[in-house]
Each structure stands twice: as structure tokens, then as C-alpha cells.
Amino acid sequence: MGFQLSNEHLVIDIASIGDYKGTRFDWSGFITGVTLREGNHSFCVPESLKEGEGTGGMGLCNEFSLREAIGYEDVPVGGLFPKLGVGLLTRIDQEPYQFYRAYPLQSYRIEVGQENAQHIHFIVHPKDCAGYAARLEKSICIEGNQLRIAYQLTNTGTRVIRTEEYNHNFFGIDRHQIGPEYALRFPFDIKPWSDEPETLDGVVIKGGEVTWAGTPDTPFYFHIEGFQNRSFSWLWELEHRPSGVGVREISTFPVSSAAVWGIGHVVSPEMFIQIELAPGERKKWTRVYEFFCSKR
Fold first, then answer.
1. pLDDT, averaged across the chain
2. Residue 112: left (phi > 0), alpha (psi -120 to 50), or beta?
3. Domains plus CATH for the chain?
4. β-bridge partners, 287
5. In what order do the strands lie in the sheet with 119-124?
6. Which residues 6+ apart lie within 8 Å of 149 measured at CB?
7. Digit-coded pLDDT (tens) for 172-230
8. Which residue has better confidence, 214 or 294?
């Protein structure tokens, strides 16, 4: 049945531990639905609309170590390496780590406590893996029309942990198709780039605003420079312009890198945070989302 948070503005649906069984996204606090009560507007969509396609993402699901898995290069085939929020994975061959591949899994023990209708807390308990171990705590709460996800990561092992974390943000407002009716805005003029320039086909950039010439039938993906070492009152804003319904991220942590991914039914602004923890050290950060309807 999962978990649910609610107040006079928002309803948040969160998956039960183990509903998502993949080896990519953090199992704790896997948010599958956000509803803005005024107008009954929805925001969360699946990564793919085709059965069995993709990596099982949906809604607001975060991931550690997208590009480089902790300890992966040090273990032989058959050895274990940690994926924070998920468990200990088994290296299956000599190929580089790829986030989209499925690896044999020994999942972490995850404890859940719901304090009230507006607040839930998750603890992912550490399991040592060649000196790598970390305790992850995640607190999800709602205040007014804001959703807050607070993280605390503690290095309980004997080796330095170097990784990154981001939230994938699979958004499709009221399931409207991505296209000219959408605007994705940033707080500065952007110059997107991609290793595969063809993924920018149909993406229209004007200053700090992104829109689309039509509904894309192939994935788009691009990087954004400009967040590093700068502070902003908001990071991005996605609006379905005809309805005035939207969501903005107002997190205040230092953004190490940023990217945007999507296809016809979904757009995902991704804000990354860099993490480096010596044994015994801990790091805290918070992601804040604000859901709105500008037309009354």
C-alpha cells in the first residue's frame, strides 16, 4: 500500500520498501505521486510508458553514483561494491559500471517511521563492504505547498566515500505531453551542451527558458553550466503554460552539475551535489520543491 503524506495543499504518495526492486535508485523515500489539491493536479510520471522498458524510475527518485560506482574499479568479477540507498551489488564482468544495468543485489535494511500525516523518516542501515559503509537518513515532510526532502549521510566505514547524488524528477504535469505548452526556466541565461548534439533537436532555448518545438519522440539530454559556486533563490521552474500549473526547486545546496533529460511524456531537471566524506564524517543537504497554480 505504501505511505502517504497530506495537508490542505498536497498529497504525497511514497512506495513501500521493496516495491521498487531495481539496482539504480535509492529504495528509501521513493516518491511515486504528488497531487496539488487545488485543481487536483498531478506531477509524477513513470520513466517509460512501455512495459519493461527503462530502469523503473518514477516521480521523485534519487540516485547515488550515477557515473562512477563506489569501489567498483577495485573489486574483481564476482566481488561486491556498494550502491548507497540500494545495497551491495555484485560485479558481473570486466565492463565499466553502467547505471542502467541490473546487478545481483544484497539489499540494505531500511527502517521507516511515520511521525504524523506530514512527516516520514527513513534510515538505511550500513553494511560493510571492503571498508565502505554509510548510514543514510532521509526525512520527507510537507509544509504548505512545499515538499522537503532532508538527507544525512554518515561515513561509518574506514575508507573515504566519494560520490554524487541527484534527484531524477520524472515530471509530466497532469500527463500533458512535453512540447510548446511547457516552459522550463532557469535563473540565468543558459547555453546547453551535449556529447550527442542530436539530442538537442527540437529543443528551443531563449535566454533562461527552454521549450520544445513539438512533442519529442526520441530522448533529449543536455548539460547546463552556470550553477557551480553560485547561489540562487530557485534552481529551476517547470510550468504547463495553458493551465499555469507548475513546480520549482528552491534547494539551496551548492549544485556541482546540472542536466535535463526527457522524452515525449516526461521532463527531468537534475541537480547534482558532490559528496566526499572521510571516516566518521557526515553531510546534510535538503531538496525543496514548491508546487503552484498561477491561474486562479
1. 96
2. beta
3. 3-293 (2.70.98.10)
4. 149
5. 110-116, 119-124, 134-143, 146-155, 282-293, 245-249, 236-240, 182-185, 209-212, 203-206
6. 29, 60, 62, 138, 139, 140, 167, 286, 287, 288
7. 999 999 999 999 999 999 999 999 989 999 999 999 999 999 999 999 999 999 998 78
8. 214
Overall residue count recorded for the chain in this entry: 296
Amino acid residing at 290: E
The position carrying cell 561509518 is 156
End-to-end CA distance of the chain: 33
- DSSP-based three-state secondary structure for 174: helix
Chain centroid, CA 129 distance in Å = 25
Say if CB 202 and CB 263 are below 8 A apart.
no
pLDDT band at 296 (very low <50, low <70, confident <90, very high): low
pLDDT digits (tens, 9 = 90+) for 214-256: 999 999 999 999 998 788 999 999 999 999 999 999 999 999 9
**SS3 state at 197:** helix
DSSP 123-145: EE----BTTB-EEEEEEEEEETT
Helices (H), the chain: none
In one-letter notation, the amino acid at residue 267 is V
All three cell numbers of 182: 511547457
Q: What are phi and psi of 255, to 5 degrees?
A: -80, 120
Number of Cα atoms under 13 Å in the Cβ half of residue 112: 17
Phi then psi for 74, rounded to 5 degrees? -90, -10
pLDDT, tens digit, 9 for 90 and up, residues 74-88:
999 999 999 999 999
For the stretch 128-146, pLDDT in tens is 999 999 999 999 999 999 9
CA 62 to chain centre: 3
> What is the grid cell recorded at 102?
541490473
- For residues 275 and 152, the answer to whether their CB atoms sit within 8 Å is no
In angstroms, the CA 37 to CA 11 distance is: 7
- 176 within 8 A of 265, measured Cβ to Cβ: no
- Tell me the β-bridge partners of 142: 147
